[in-house]
Design brief:
With 289 residues, this protein is an alpha/beta fold. Helices cover 43% and strands 19% of the residues. The chain contains 8 helices and 8 strands. The two termini are 39 Å apart. The relative contact order is 0.11.
Length: 289
Amino acid sequence: MVRAVLIASAFVTAIAVAPAFGADGFDARFAAAVAQAQRGDHDAALSAFEMLAREFPTRPEPLNNLAAELARRGDLVRAREVLERALRTQPAYATAHDNLRTVYAALASDAYRKALPVGAEPAAPPELALIARTTPTPITVAVPVTRPSVTHAAIAAAPAAPQGGAETATSISNGRAFAAFAAVDAWAQAWAQQDVAGYLAAYGRGFTAPDGLTRAAWEAQRTERIRAPKQISISLAQRDLTLDASGERASLRFVQTYRSDRFNGSAWKTLELERQGGRWQIVAERAGR
């Protein structure tokens, strides 16, 4: 189970609620809601974060913390939706990015578990990181601002479900789609953070390097290009995933926006993915639609 992390320079103690209007009102009410969550008054914290999210729709902090409260109750679908809203208001909020990846992974795990025989032990709900201060912690990678689309057929190899095979196939298919999105998000983040090892690890066996390069020569070239800029920003938008009927291969098309101190540009890109050892890996990539 993912442990909760509280981001703050000091623990927040109970604060008297200030008037509801203006920046000061927001800060005091937000801190009070965080204090409620810290001391275990989760019903009150949930209500407070919901109200703040309605009154301050452009602030990502209450949305992130609302998602954390929803996730601890097991409402992962709504937690995902709320985190996506948070990242539309502030695409570079590191905590919301980390939490969204955790929710994606938990949803995928839940989908797999539903395919198991009746009696399988349910997973404990994930604990997401709370934000306890109102200053964003930015990172250089942004997730898409539009909801990704998924096209998938029922997985032919899915085991028979105790209460109907179609439901099980759909659960596995959805879980693998979530995992594919999470794998590509991790690839983009490793690139943006100039984590060469993490970036190269996203490419699986059988990947054919472009321009006739050997795999070793391509990796050396990518290492040089990733490390050279002072800073990199990667944004993926309009993501469209196609999962094949086997559930073992997928194609993800998106608009990639790259920015650095050396080059800026946007273009369509397609990644071909294959499940290897239970993980989605990139086996081919191409530019254009």
